[in-house]
Design a protein that fits this description.
Blueprint lengths: L9 H15 L6 H15 L2 H9 L6 H20 L3 H12 L5 H16 L4 H10 L7 H20 L15
Helix pairs in contact: 1-2, 2-3, 2-4, 3-4, 4-5, 4-6, 5-6, 6-7
Length: about 170
Amino acid sequence: MPNSISTLGYFDEAINAISDYQRKYPNSQRTENIDEILTVAYLNAKNYDVALRHIESMKTRSATINKAYQQIAFYKGTELFNDGKFPEAIAMFDKSLTQSHSNAFVIKAHYWKGRSFFHRLPICRGIEQLRGCFSCRCPGRFNRIRRSKVWNWLRLFQRERLCQSPGSFQVLYR
């Protein structure tokens, strides 16, 4: 098995070194660059909780940090979803949706937020989120796979008549 930076623990070392630098030089001209490097290190180390606290504590954030925030919040949401913590997952997907740097992550956040609502009531909220998957454009294969998964979920819930609200699916059939 090949060694990678993450399996060798280099992300932790990098995070510690960068954090030490930030503590020693809080007013450095390189603060923005250091924040970006640290944020990406947290993302790559899958240290989502610390990354979110770090980003949310910033007074100003660059586009790079906001893009990472979108991804970090999404990945944390999927962790919470997999742990069955659906309300917390929904909150994380909402945080991810505050940024729109990547249409792919916008679509994924809507999809997983919709799936989270399907594990809770009301089911119709889940359908609203799945509709959000259709509002973004992504090229090629990802777009086909996304639409296929969403349609399958919507067909299931329509067939089971779990959502009785009028016009729940009308927008999707246009």
